[in-house]
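User: Hi! I'm a student and our assignment asks us to look at how structure tokens line up with a sequence. Could you show me two examples?

Assistant: Happy to help. In each example below, the sequence comes first and the structure tokens follow. Example one:
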Amino acid sequence: MLRTSYVAAAGPTKEFLESGCALIVATVADDLEPHASRGWGLDLVGENRVRLLVDADDHQLHANLAANSSIAISATHVPTLRSVQLKGHTTAFAPGTDSDLHRMRRYCDQFFADIEATDGIAPELMARIIPARLAAYRAEFDEAFDQTPGPRAGSSFTA
């Protein structure tokens, strides 16, 4: 458990993490084989706690989390490359809901707009990567790092 709050439940860090940041989700199997996938929306639900939307059909992600619950999430603002990495463990799983589909749509609208602005890729082309079904995990974080490129990359992060 954290001795201090790395990720506050309100403020600029909350706005950043709940925006259309690129969300990369890393898990590991019991044999330490890593697996990376994409997140489809993230909401802070308390200090150092998030609710993360993932592809319900990513079987390796679900198997890894069922086996050991270890998770890392990197959130990167596409235009500026500002990045935060959260490391911890999942505490709950739920199938995706209609509300989650709406949350994912808001996430995609922001994320795809940033990609179009920076890379010129039309949102219609990006739409092919949207998962057909969602699942949601709650996670608690023990560590947070500033991963923005530059001299502070890898340093501990506090909101």
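Example two works the same way, sequence first and then tokens:
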Amino acid sequence: MLDPRPAPAPVLSARGLTKVYRMGEVEVHALRGVDLDLFEGEFVVLLGASGSGKSTLLNILGGLDQPSAGSVLHRGHDLTRAGEAELTQWRREHVGFVFQFYNLIPSLTARENVALVTDISRHPMSPDEALELVGLSKRADHFPAQMSGGEQQRVAIARAVAKRPEVLLCDEPTGALDVVTGKVVLEVLDRINREVGTTTAIITHNAAIATMAHRVVTFADGRALEVKRNERRASAQDLQW
């Protein structure tokens, strides 16, 4: 019997993405014809070793870089044909970024760091609401130097999700953290995906994180080699690092 439910709509669709960096006479192929869809509300892990093309793909999906060939569509709109001003507006309204390093402003409190985003967003959460979502309500008036690495990363996540993005793109968000703190950060990302419904993509070299995902896409040599679906998602605390 056919499933009567409609197929989920892709928020982002990449087709034939190629990225070539030229250094003198040498060409470095970072991506080699990658196809990828990110669907509404899903949690995706992009898994691969350093240099496999994951970060390049994430930067192109987020409008931070342009491919040498191929296209990225946001709900049918071709972002690879957009100008810089249009891409800036699109990133501001639709995408949240979380990087390995927190990129917080040292002279601002947690609340003020989040407010940098909410002040320029159309329909944001309040900074306090975003900090509560990541479990840092009591640290809102603390400066980054007064917080642990895990707390700083959670402030960065609060800043990314405060504008209510459609897509949250995370580049090695636990890479600078110990195992215990990394699990806390992953719990926060999982909670945001489950409770807010934000489409979430995490790139990592840590295979253990893959068990948290709806889908796992394995990368090597600039290619997406394998897609695996998890019938049951693990919690962050269940991960065996």
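Here is something you could point out in your write-up. The mean pLDDT is 92.
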